[in-house]
């Protein structure tokens, strides 16, 4: 028997999932959580085999709740079930440790198969999600900034002008501009502000 905790803040959706799972002879729904905090608490109290987890919930998001459950209640596995299929949502859930990511629009058979697969220690991804991940992995890595380009951009971030940067690094102003233009090209941006912002987002600064 697969013991399942269902976590979803939408009562109607949650009831539908519970009804679907409850009709299966090998699945038992042992609890329902209305938000991420309750999901963490019930997972610890009930120690289900599997938590079916929504992504966007009050108090604690699905990926945050997933990370806490896996850290605090070893042995519990998480299957994310959501309407969202953005790269950010998928990666956040997988990085948090979820063993599966399915869409609520998926056929009932796909959801049931996913629950059984994850409970058995396997990974379950809907075809649409798997395709997105494959495409992301196949994307070529952006060109790396050289140490000098990074140095110039760091000084830009500190508010220095091209002339001031040149004086600081003992470079001509034209050389500083060349470094910046190459940096813009590598980052796919066209101005200093966006270059600094993107570099910070990527952990380059």
UniProtKB/TrEMBL annotation:
4-aspartylphosphate: residues carrying this PTM: 54
InterPro entries named among the record's database cross-references: CheY-like_superfamily, NreC/VraR/RcsB-like_REC, Sig_transdc_resp-reg_C-effctor, Sig_transdc_resp-reg_receiver, Tscrpt_reg_LuxR_C, WalR-like
GO molecular function: DNA binding
Residue ranges constituting the HTH luxR-type domain according to the UniProt record: 138-203
Keywords (A to Z) from UniProt: DNA-binding, Phosphoprotein, Transcription, Transcription regulation
The Response regulatory domain, residue ranges: 3-119
Example GO BP: regulation of DNA-templated transcription
Database matches in PANTHER family: TRANSCRIPTIONAL REGULATORY PROTEIN NARL-RELATED, TWO-COMPONENT RESPONSE REGULATOR
Name under which the protein is recorded: LuxR family two component transcriptional regulator
Origin species: Microcella putealis
């Amino acid at each position: 028997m697969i013991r399942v905790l269902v976590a979803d803040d939408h009562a109607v959706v949650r009831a539908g999932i519970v009804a679907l799972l409850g009709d299966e002879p090998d699945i038992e729904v042992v609890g329902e959580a209305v938000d991420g905090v309750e999901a963490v608490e019930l997972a610890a109290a009930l120690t289900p085999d599997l938590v079916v987890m929504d992504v966007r919930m009050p108090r604690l998001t699905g990926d945050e709740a997933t990370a806490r459950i896996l850290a605090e209640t070893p042995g519990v596995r998480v299957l994310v079930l959501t309407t969202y299929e953005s790269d950010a949502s998928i990666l956040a859930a997988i990085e948090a440790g979820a063993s599966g990511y399915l869409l609520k629009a998926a056929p009932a058979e796909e959801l049931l198969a996913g629950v059984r697969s994850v409970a058995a220690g396997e990974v379950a991804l809907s075809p649409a999600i798997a395709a997105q991940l494959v495409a992301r992995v196949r994307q070529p890595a952006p060109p790396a900034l050289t140490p000098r380009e990074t140095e110039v951009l760091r000084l830009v971030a500190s508010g220095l002008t091209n002339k001031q940067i040149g004086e600081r690094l003992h470079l001509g102003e034209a050389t500083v501009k060349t470094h910046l233009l190459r940096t813009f090209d590598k980052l796919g941006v066209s101005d200093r502000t966006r270059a600094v912002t993107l570099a910070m987002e990527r952990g380059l600064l």
